[in-house]
Design a protein that fits this description.
Blueprint (H helix, E strand, L loop, with lengths): L5 H14 L10 H21 L2 E2 L7 E2 L3 H8 L1 H32 L6 H8 L1 H4 L2 H11 L7 H4 L13 H29 L3 H9 L4 H12 L1 H16 L3 H6 L11 H10 L4 H26 L12
Antiparallel strand pairs: 1-2
Helix pairs in contact: 2-15, 3-15, 4-9, 4-12, 9-12, 12-15, 14-15
Length: 309
């Protein structure tokens, strides 16, 4: 019988123990899974079922097959709302991402005024969306708002909310003003995880701040950018209260995005079956865009940026 060293068992057990470090049992995720199922999966399943019914919110739902979906794909108002939602999402992403990225990298530094300015900058994140929308609605009132006095100084039409382009850009700006601190916080956390030894080595090689930013900071924040972008896309596609309070889908239907169209269809015309179809389509669009972003960014197969350090 071959002799087996007692240290072999110790080494094997130690290796197994090390392999399980940081991996709690699946049961730890059970509360989160149950919460997600009750408040996300079940309501979504109900909405999908209602999308195949006619329901006015009072009487019992009546199955109508695929009538709501046939109407959806033929409805020019739905196509316009879908286009406006994608346009608003693109504008919001293009506006928020560069600013939040730069502010996050700056906030991760050791400047003397960093703590105070960061705290001030995060204040909009603490306010409700309704309060912020009402605030900007009052400020941008063409008759009594501040825009009437200071708008002409900068060549801005006081009735900026009266034009289709101005109203859409205003909605994107207000949403970005509130939620940009959240994405700044994400980039700040990501920037603080970058090993300082990389910057020291780059400085020794003669790389300036600009080259360090493009060759070290941006590559190290690739996965952080993907995470922030997914959250930003989903959030922009679900804008509702800002549009409801500031524009009510106007002027005309120029800011009638999918969430507002869903609200108007369900709670103003009481066609809740068709509204459920719009809601389901919105979920499909948001999920599809998120999956495409994750797939082509390589986020699904990401590895630690500190690996090998």
């Amino acid at each position: 019988m071959p002799h087996v060293s007692p240290y072999a068992k110790v080494r094997g057990g130690r290796k197994a123990a090390v392999g399980n470090v940081g991996r709690p049992p699946v049961g730890w995720a059970l509360p989160g899974i149950l919460f997600f199922a009750v408040f996300a999966i079940v309501p979504l399943a109900i909405a999908v079922c209602l999308s195949f019914c006619h329901w006015d919110g009072l009487n019992s739902p009546t199955p109508v097959g695929t009538d709501n979906w046939t109407r959806l794909f033929k409805d020019p108002e739905f196509r316009q709302a879908a286009w406006l939602s994608l346009l608003l999402t693109t504008v919001s992403w293009a506006f928020q991402t560069p600013v939040a990225l730069l502010l996050g990298v700056w906030a991760a530094g050791r400047q003397r005024s960093r703590t105070f300015l960061s705290a001030v900058f995060f204040i909009p994140l603490l306010l409700s969306t309704t309060a912020i929308a009402m605030l900007f609605h009052a400020l941008l009132d063409p008759n009594f708002g501040v825009i009437k006095q200071i708008g002409p100084w900068f060549g801005i039409d006081p009735n900026i909310m009266g034009s289709s382009t101005g109203a859409l850009l205003t909605v994107a700006f207000v949403g970005g003003w509130q939620f940009m601190p959240f994405h700044t916080l994400i980039y700040q956390g990501g920037a603080r995880q970058i090993p300082e030894v990389l910057y020291h080595a780059a400085a020794i090689d003669g790389a300036g701040m600009l080259r360090q930013f493009f060759h070290i900071t941006l590559p190290q924040l690739r996965n952080t950018i993907t995470t922030s972008s997914v959250l930003m896309i989903v959030g922009s596609l679900t804008y509702f209260d800002t549009v409801l309070i500031m524009t009510k889908g106007g002027p005309g239907t120029d800011t009638t995005i999918l969430p507002y169209l869903m609200y108007r269809t369900g709670f103003q015309t009481y066609d809740l079956g068709y509204a459920a179809a719009i809601a389901t389509a919105l979920v499909v669009v948001a999920t599809g865009l998120s999956l495409v972003l994750v797939r082509f960014s390589g986020f699904g197969s990401m590895r630690s940026t500190r690996e090998g350090m």
